[in-house]
Amino acid sequence: MTATPPAALDVVRNDDESRYEIRDGDTLLGFAAYQETPELVVFTHTEVFPGSEGKGVGGHLVGGALDDVRTRELRALPVCPFVQAYLQRHPEYADLDYRAPRSTASD
Description:
Layout: E1 10-14, E2 19-24, E3 27-36, E4 40-48, H1 57-71, E5 75-78, H2 81-89
Parallel strand pairs: 4-5
Antiparallel strand pairs: 1-2, 2-3, 3-4
């Protein structure tokens, strides 16, 4: 059996459970729990299930969740240490970090 590359996995927002989920078909591999306000998404806990750890699944999950936050024009407050570390390692998401000041530059 060949492992599914993280890029082929689906990241979906499950509003009923207040979490982003990463799936390989019908198999749930992990989730990122959140609380939402009108302006931000607070990431409270990320969990990747045994057997999927250390394969890039958690990073793909958080990246997909942050992409959704960006699409919805919200910001992210990472209470979860995993999400905090991901934001530090991926400056392309720095503009989403609620803790960082917004730019006041204009054209």
